[in-house]
């Protein structure tokens, strides 16, 4: 781990919440993740940047084994991610995931979408799940939409419900895979503001995004990927003002001129 905003004394007694060691992944002949080593500590916000096809989303999806890996290991809070079965389901519950598409159940109300996981997966009583869901919907600013169906909400509202649904499982880490890429421009900020709020509250987050403003504002550390490799790790300040690799300079140069 190179640089981040946490003090070294605090870091010394922290087991990483997420640890990837020598992770490789192929799609046929394509080597999409090449010997990835990454540690994320509790409360840290890591933003993953890079051009399309660099392996960012695949990296994100391997962390709760939506994608399998060919070799290496992934640990969540000190436990190696199992390959399948109940142990995987249990560990996966510690990892919240928010996708590009909101993946809400169309025939269930907003409240039901958020309570489903705690009731089904964690055996929570309905009254307790409803109370938790309402507090989370309040937190993401859509509590007044609780009785509506997803199709009655804007894209930005649906994505905030998806965030509340992930939080309802009380995860140890939240993964965001391009959470604003399917949204209209005017809705992007409402989702990013929700995510910035979570970061300030100390949620451990790994965020794959093209939103440079979010990376500057909320990240403790920026990971830059290209061609399936982590090319550079730095604080946002260092990365945006003084990138060290030619690939990162090229990437930022194209963003600034577009």
UniProtKB/TrEMBL annotation:
Q: What class of enzyme is it?
A: translocase
Q: Where is the ABC transporter domain?
A: 18-252
Q: Give the matching PROSITE patterns.
A: ABC_TRANSPORTER_1 (PS00211), ABC_TRANSPORTER_2 (PS50893)
Q: Supply one GO CC term from the record.
A: plasma membrane
| CDD domains linked | ABC_HisP_GlnQ (cd03262)
Q: Which UniProt keywords apply?
A: Amino-acid transport, ATP-binding, Cell membrane, Hydrolase, Membrane, Nucleotide-binding, Transport
**Catalytic activity from the UniProt record:** a polar amino acid(out) + ATP + H2O = a polar amino acid(in) + ADP + phosphate + H(+)
How does the record classify its membrane topology?
Peripheral membrane protein
> What Enzyme Commission number(s) does the record list for this chain?
7.4.2.1
Q: Which residues cross the membrane?
A: none
Report the GO molecular function annotations: ATP binding; ATP hydrolysis activity; ATPase-coupled polar amino acid-transporter activity
Q: What is its main location?
A: membrane
Q: Which InterPro entries match?
A: AAA+_ATPase, ABC_ATPase_HisP-typ, ABC_transporter-like_ATP-bd, ABC_transporter-like_CS, MetN_ABC_transporter-like, P-loop_NTPase
Classification via PANTHER family:
AMINO ACID IMPORT ATP-BINDING PROTEIN (PTHR43166), GLUTAMATE_ASPARTATE IMPORT ATP-BINDING PROTEIN GLTL (PTHR43166:SF9)
> What family name appears in the similarity comment?
Belongs to the ABC transporter superfamily.
- Write down what this protein is called: ABC-type polar-amino-acid transporter
Species assigned in the record: Paeniglutamicibacter gangotriensis Lz1y
Q: What is the lineage of its organism?
A: Bacteria, Bacillati, Actinomycetota, Actinomycetes, Micrococcales
Q: Which gene encodes it?
A: glnQ
């Amino acid at each position: 781990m190179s640089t981040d905003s946490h003090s070294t004394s605090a870091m010394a007694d922290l087991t990483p919440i997420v640890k990837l060691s020598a992770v490789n992944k192929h799609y046929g002949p394509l080597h999409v993740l090449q010997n990835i080593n990454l540690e994320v500590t509790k409360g840290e916000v890591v933003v993953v940047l890079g051009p399309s096809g660099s392996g960012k989303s695949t990296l994100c999806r391997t962390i709760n084994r939506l994608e399998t890996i060919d070799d290496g290991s992934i640990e969540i809070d000190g436990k190696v991610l199992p390959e399948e079965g109940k142990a995987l389901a249990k560990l996966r519950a510690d990892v919240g995931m928010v996708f590009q598409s909101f993946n809400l159940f169309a025939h269930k109300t907003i409240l039901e979408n958020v309570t489903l996981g705690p009731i089904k997966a964690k055996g929570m009583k309905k009254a307790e799940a409803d109370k938790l869901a309402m507090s989370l919907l309040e937190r993401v600013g859509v509590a007044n939409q609780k009785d509506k169906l997803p199709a009655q909400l804007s894209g930005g509202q649906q994505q905030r419900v998806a965030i509340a649904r992930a939080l309802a499982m009380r995860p140890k880490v939240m993964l965001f895979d391009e959470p604003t890429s399917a949204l209209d421009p005017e809705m992007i900020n409402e989702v990013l503001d929700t995510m910035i709020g979570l970061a300030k509250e100390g949620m451990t987050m790994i965020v794959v995004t093209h939103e440079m403003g979010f990376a500057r504002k909320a990240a403790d550390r920026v990971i830059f990927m290209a061609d399936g490799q982590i090319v550079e790790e730095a604080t946002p300040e260092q990365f945006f003002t003084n990138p060290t690799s030619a690939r990162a300079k090229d990437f930022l140069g194209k963003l600034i001129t577009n």
